[in-house]
């Protein structure tokens, strides 16, 4: 419209009408004016109606003509009429969408926006109708897709790159318990993630690869942790819609699957009766243990445990009693092994224990297995309470050691089984080793321990006394040395039994006997002028010295024997001093107050530390006889001996040499400044009687 031609000018008015007509004609839609009557009688309808419906405008304006209302799909007609009536009643405009049937029979969706203009007095409606089919179809597609997302079983979530949730479907509502309105705007990582490092890892991967998938545990609203199978996809920013870059997260709840998997795993690898690993599981673990052993060269062990006379219980008391016993046995067996080891049930009354390969040698593994086997046999000793009944059962155990470089699953199982039959053959309620050498060693050891117990009971131990002399070859004291006189008269030396005493713990009882016997002998010496000034050295093992009641025990011996403790010297070894310095130093100090003196035995063979030496209330260093043997020919030994003597001097400690066998050795020692000697050059250890005779003689 030009600025100089106003609407009042007739030329301008006709030009205006013309352009309006043109506008109406070209309008991609229909403008109308109709009466509010039953037929919606048209007063005006624009040319676009022909394009929309296939009927020319004249068809609607003719009387009678086409009634627009009749074109409305019967299903939509009532709603459309209701919509118009309500709007008119409320004096506002109306918006409708409905279908029309066109002249060619096709259906179209239309959108109509109309109102009753105020000047029409409520009798006229004007409005605009346009073809909405395409838009509606597109809308429907979007709507349908959105409803797919909504109805999906999976939880579908969109989050911005800062973890803020922007979309949350019904699946997410169901899975996590938060409604969409509660979840939107919250941070994904704060709302759901129990394991933040896993979240960050997924995030990083999504950033670099565009996607990530895997299993994540998520927290539900009620705090329960659920397992999900999750896929993250990076969605690029959409320039058109202005949507920023986001991550789409689709999660499926796999808690039930996980639970079922665990159940299936349990069924496949555990015995339902005892809940112990079953045969399949044992074979798997054994195979792995052997593979590991082949790699690490460490040794382990396998033990077959078979209940003795189990069939009798089953036959006499029924299977329920048998089942109860098996369950109780399983629990006791589990208590006999370390956490890494495994108790499995093969079936029936057969159990297997796998001792993991962690030992350097077969002997080490055998020793471990022996401890466990002894525990298993002992664990069955107490009767089992089966409902109302008490029942006793024993077990036969077959043990074999294994090393992956030599043994296989089959050979290991076969050997343990064979050893178990040997245990049965040996009267049941015991264990046997498959390896003949190991078995022989253990039998000998068991025999030795039994013998030592008997020796203590039957007083087969004796003390012999080896003289200690000064530079003028005068006896100044003795060392008490333990001997075992067998019933057949044979005399055994400590090297044959002292280790067994230590390892079996018998050393405590025997050490007490040694101290009592030695003190009684010393008390006797003290009663005779010829021997009254002699000192007596007694060897005390580390385990005995650290016993909590060592001091009171000694005190009691002093009282019983009436000995003067000032002539008693205790020989301690370096290992004791090193292993528990504080406690040792304290006990030494207490005993020192009673007048007892201390000698450090086997000096130079252990972890000698000057710091320890200085801090302990020692009186004497004892040069070990291993240095004496070659002192005249070996420069190293000679230097060590000289250093020990010099060290003793500088610390103000007396130095005694043991193992002095030749005059040459003695000369060497005196040249180096050591003037107290013990050794075969003078005497072997003598019986108490012979010692006193000897002492009087060289007095
Ligand atoms: P030890 O305390 O170092 O005892 C010295 C060992 O050297 C003794 O061996 C002794 O007989 C031996 N011996 C003495 N003179 C010579 C010699 O000139 N040449 C050689 N080659 N050896 C000599 P034994 O009696 O066989 O005792 C060995 C070890 O047993 C002792 O070493 C000591 O550690 C331990 N032992 C002995 N009696 C007892 C005891 O009553 N209690 C404890 N806990 N251990 C003891
Ligand atoms: Mg000694
Ligand atoms: Mg010694």
UniProtKB/TrEMBL annotation:
Alphabetized InterPro entries for the sequence: Biofilm_reg_signaling (IPR052155), EAL_dom (IPR001633), EAL_sf (IPR035919), GGDEF_dom (IPR000160), Nucleotide_cyclase (IPR029787), PAC (IPR001610), PAS (IPR000014), PAS-like_dom_sf (IPR035965)
Domain EAL: 445-699
CDD domains: EAL (cd01948), GGDEF (cd01949), PAS (cd00130)
Residue span, GGDEF domain: 298-436
Matching Pfam families: EAL, GGDEF, PAS_3, PAS_4
NCBIfam families attached to this UniProt entry: GGDEF, sensory_box
Name under which the protein is recorded: EAL domain-containing protein
């Amino acid at each position: 419209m030009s600025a100089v031609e106003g609407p009042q000018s007739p030329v301008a008015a006709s030009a205006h009408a013309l352009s309006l007509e043109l506008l109406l004609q070209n309008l991609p839609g229909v403008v109308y004016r109709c009466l509010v009557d039953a037929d919606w009688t048209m007063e005006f309808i624009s040319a676009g109606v022909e394009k929309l419906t296939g009927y020319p405008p004249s068809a609607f304006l003719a009387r009678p003509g086409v009634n627009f209302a009749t074109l409305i799909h019967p299903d939509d007609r009532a709603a459309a009429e209701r919509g118009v009536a309500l709007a008119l009643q409320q004096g506002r405009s109306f918006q409708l969408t409905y279908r029309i049937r066109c002249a060619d029979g096709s259906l179209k969706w239309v959108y109509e926006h109309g109102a009753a203009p105020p000047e029409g007095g409520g009798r006229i409606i004007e409005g605009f109708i346009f073809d909405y089919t395409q838009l509606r179809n597109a809308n429907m597609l979007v709507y349908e897709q959105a409803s797919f997302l909504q109805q999906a079983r999976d939880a579908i979530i969109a989050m911005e790159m800062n973890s803020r949730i922007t979309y949350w479907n019904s699946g997410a509502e169901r899975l996590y318990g938060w409604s969409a309105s509660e979840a939107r705007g919250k941070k994904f990582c704060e709302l759901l993630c129990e394991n933040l490092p896993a979240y960050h890892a997924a995030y990083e991967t999504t950033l670099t690869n565009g996607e990530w998938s895997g299993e994540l545990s998520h927290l539900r609203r009620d705090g329960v942790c659920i397992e999900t199978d999750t896929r993250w996809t990076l969605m690029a920013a959409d320039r058109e819609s202005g949507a920023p870059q986001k991550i789409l997260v689709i999660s499926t709840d796999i808690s039930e699957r996980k639970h079922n998997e665990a159940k299936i795993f349990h069924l496949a690898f555990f015995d339902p009766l005892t809940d112990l690993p079953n045969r399949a599981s044992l074979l798997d673990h054994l195979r792995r243990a052997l593979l590991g052993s082949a790699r690490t060269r460490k040794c382990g062990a396998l033990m077959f445990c078979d209940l003795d006379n189990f069939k009798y219980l089953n036959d006499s008391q029924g299977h329920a009693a048998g089942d109860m016993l098996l369950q109780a046995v399983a629990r006791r067996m589990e208590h006999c092994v370390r956490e890494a080891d495994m108790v499995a049930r093969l079936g029936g009354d057969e159990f297997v224990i796998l001792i993991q390969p962690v030992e350097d040698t077969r002997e080490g593994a055998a020793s471990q297995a022996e401890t466990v086997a002894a525990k298993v046999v002992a664990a069955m000793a107490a009767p089992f309470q089966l409902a109302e009944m008490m029942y006793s059962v024993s077990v036969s155990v077959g043990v074999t050691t294994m090393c992956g470089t030599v043994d296989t699953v089959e050979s290991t199982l076969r050997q343990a089984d064979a050893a178990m039959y040997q245990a049965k053959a040996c009267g049941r309620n015991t264990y046997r080793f498959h390896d003949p050498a190991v078995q022989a060693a253990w039998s000998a050891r068991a025999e030795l321990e039994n013998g030592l117990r008997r020796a203590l009971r039957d007083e087969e131990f004796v003390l012999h006394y080896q003289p200690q002399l000064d530079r003028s070859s005068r006896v100044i004291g003795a060392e008490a040395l333990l001997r075992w006189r067998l019933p057949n008269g044979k005399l055994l030396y400590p090297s044959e039994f002292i280790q067994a005493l230590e390892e079996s713990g018998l050393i405590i009882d025997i050490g007490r006997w040694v101290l009592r016997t030695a003190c009684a002998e010393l008390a006797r010496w003290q009663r005779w002028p010829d021997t009254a000034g002699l000192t007596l050295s007694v060897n005390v093992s580390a385990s005995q010295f650290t016993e909590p009641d060592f001091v009171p025990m000694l005190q009691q011996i002093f009282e019983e024997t009436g000995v003067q403790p000032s002539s008693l010297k205790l020989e301690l070894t370096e290992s004791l001093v090193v292993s528990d310095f504080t406690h040792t130093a304290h006990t030494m100090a207490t005993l020192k107050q009673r007048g007892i003196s201390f000698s450090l035995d086997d000096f130079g063979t252990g972890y000698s530390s000057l710091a320890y030496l200085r801090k302990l209330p020692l009186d004497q260093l004892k040069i070990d006889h291993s240095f004496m043997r070659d002192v005249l020919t070996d420069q190293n030994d000679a230097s060590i001996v000289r250093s020990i003597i010099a060290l003793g001097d500088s610390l103000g400690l007396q130095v005694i040499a043991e193992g002095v066998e030749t005059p040459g050795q003695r000369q060497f020692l005196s040249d180096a400044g050591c003037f107290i000697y013990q050794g075969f050059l003078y005497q072997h250890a003598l019986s108490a009687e012979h010692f006193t005779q000897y002492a009087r003689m060289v007095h």
